[in-house]
Structure formats: C-alpha cells, structure tokens
Design brief:
two-stranded antiparallel ribbon, 12 helices, 355 residues
Length: 355
C-alpha cells in the first residue's frame, strides 16, 4: 500500500495521548484571539500531517484547522509553524491561493507547543499523481494548473509582500545541503546509509554556477494542493513548513520529481503510462514552466533532481527517527521512514545520469 494512500492519510482519527489537546485552554485562547469564535469546541486529528500535527476544530460558529509543533524533543529549526502562518498571510495579499490565517500562538502553555489556526478549505485533494477520477481529456488542465501556480509563486517579489527577510538569498544549495546533512548526521537513531554518505560528500561539488532567489514552497506536490470541487483550479496550497527564500529551480525540480518518483513513496508517476493517461511528458511540463517564468531552458536538470531526492531522503530519515522515538505525528511514519534508503539510491542514480 502506498504511504500516501488516501485511506491512510485522509480523514480523521481520535488523537493519541501524546497529541491530545487541552480543549478548554484552546477554547479560551480562541475566544480571545479569533474574531467570531464561539464554543464549545470539539477536536479531532487529521490522519495525515507527517511533521506538524494537524487538527480539525469544530465549534458553534464553524470549522477551523489547527497546526502545531509536535511534542517531545525537536531538531533545531524544524517544525516552524510561525513561518507557515507568516508566509500564508503574506501571499494572501497578492491573491495567491492559500488558507486564511486566523491567529498564531507562540505561548506553549496553551496546548503544550506553538500553533496557528487557519481556515478549513473545502475541495479535492489528489493523493495519486495520476489524478484518478478525472476525465482523460481534463487531466492536462490539472497539470497545467499545478505548473502555473508554482510559476506564479516564483514570480512574486518577496519584498513587495513583506517577505524580504524570509530567508537568506544566495548560496541556497550550499546552505540546504549543509542543513540536511546536519539533520541526517545529528539523528543517528534512524541509522546510516552508504548512498546518503556519498551524497553528503559529493553534492556540494556539483552545485551549478549562478544563483537566483524567490519564495519557495519546499514541498509542492499534488497532495499538498486543494483543488476546486469541480474545476481544474487550485484554491489552496497547504503545508508551508519548508518554505523560505530559495532557488526557484530547486523548488520546481522537487515538484517535477513526481515524474521519477515511485508512487509507493509519495505521489509519483514512475512506471505510469503517461500517453494513455493523457498526462504531459516531463519535458513538456518543464517547457511550460520555462515559458511561464521567462526561461529559455533549464541547464543542469539532473543536479536539481538529485538534490531533491537527497533532501527528501533526509526528511524521511528524520521521520524514521521520530517514529523510533515515539514522537512522530502520523501512524504511517514507520512506513515512510523505511523509504529513506530507496530515496538516497534514487538521488545517486540522478546524480550519475549523464543526460
């Protein structure tokens, strides 16, 4: 079964003891900080949310979503819910599709960790990158929508919406490789891998020359997008934990990595018959992004793909460590963690590809 199987990751569940919230304390905070809120409050947890636990809040005035830092020891710099709230608030100013943010709370005494509350956006989430249930003739429009929205994100001037200091522009790949290397090496619980060790050693020397900076999402996949209930239109982009100012080609390559991603790991198209499904080819998808962002082409594509498999491998390694320590948010964390060696191998394969 896929780690992103809809039955495993969508829907609600009763929170475990480690992830249970103090509903009375939360209700008091919302009364004071969320305009129009009226209790009583009922809390259930979404099954997904691998990193930051995510909850559905039912109240007398409607439904909200809460995202929090997980309980227990945390890796430095991870689970930045304050940044998630900030970037969504900023992007809403220019009509980018995000959920409305009602409030952010840095006071850990309320529910035990930092959190924010946002709008519940009703629509469709596709856990399978082949977009089952969508008509064959419609399918290209859904891929065009994804491509156009990530191009729109990379075209926003960060300073114009108050995000000029949202990250450190320049040397993005060096800093990212260092960050994920450090996270990998500082979390020995999930073990070591020869391919990952090779990537740590070789990737820094393969960074392309030149640099760019834009707002990057960091985890732009079909299952982090909410589509309109009946139209090929994205109405909200979710899960901004990894967002920063970074290299737009790193962000786009992570998204386009779906073409090479085995579907049992995350929503991917590896092995799919694209022609039969009427899904644009990888090269056509890249060309559409280039046209939307004013590029002639993307040189060093294999590096960008290798970097992103490495980065995702490091993320899965972290999930595996949290699962072993019993602090992972999702019940699927153990299965996700097991994909770490396969992702590291895919990164090495991309790095060695001469094309």
């Amino acid at each position: 079964m896929s780690a992103l199987d809809e039955a495993a990751n969508s829907g609600l569940a009763e929170p475990s003891d480690a992830h249970r919230l103090d509903e009375e304390a939360l209700s008091r905070w919302m009364t004071a900080n969320v305009e129009g809120f009226r209790g009583p409050l009922s809390v259930s947890k979404f099954k997904g949310g691998q990193s930051n636990p995510t909850y559905r809040l039912q109240s007398a005035d409607g439904v909200y979503v809460l995202r929090r830092k997980p309980p227990g020891p945390l890796v430095s710099g991870a689970h930045a819910v304050d940044r998630e709230a900030r970037v969504q608030r900023a992007l809403s100013q220019v009509g980018f599709p995000v959920a409305h943010i009602y409030g952010h709370c840095a006071d850990r005494s309320v529910i035990g960790s930092e959190f924010y509350v946002m709008q519940l956006v009703e629509g469709r989430i596709f856990w399978d990158a082949t977009f089952p249930g969508v008509g064959r003739e419609e399918r290209p429009s859904y891929f065009n929508a994804m491509c156009d929205v990530i191009a729109q994100l990379h075209s926003v001037d960060p300073a114009s919406i108050g995000l000029g200091d949202y990250g450190r522009p320049g040397s993005y790949f060096a800093r990212q490789i260092s960050r994920w290397t450090r996270q990998y090496q500082e979390d020995p619980d999930a073990g070591r891998d020869a391919n990952m060790d090779r990537l740590v050693k070789e990737l820094p020397g393969r960074v392309p020359s030149g640099d760019e900076a834009s707002i990057v999402h960091g985890d732009f996949r079909c299952d982090n997008l909410i589509f309109h209930p009946s139209e090929p239109r994205i109405i909200a982009v979710l899960d901004w934990e990894l967002s920063t100012l970074g290299h737009p080609l790193a962000d786009f390559a992570y998204h386009a990595m779906m073409y090479r991603m085995p579907p049992h790991i995350v929503a991917g198209l590896a092995g799919a018959d694209l022609a039969a499904l009427n899904i644009p080819r990888e090269e056509d998808y890249i060309d559409r992004y280039c046209r939307a962002t004013g590029r002639d082409a993307i040189a060093d594509w294999q590096f960008y793909v290798a970097f992103n498999f490495f980065r995702l491998a490091a993320i899965m390694h972290g999930i595996a460590g949290r699962a072993l320590r019993g602090t992972a948010s999702s019940t699927q964390a153990v299965e996700r963690g097991k994909t770490f060696p396969e992702l590291a191998a895919l990164a090495v394969r991309a790095m060695e590809d001469p094309s």
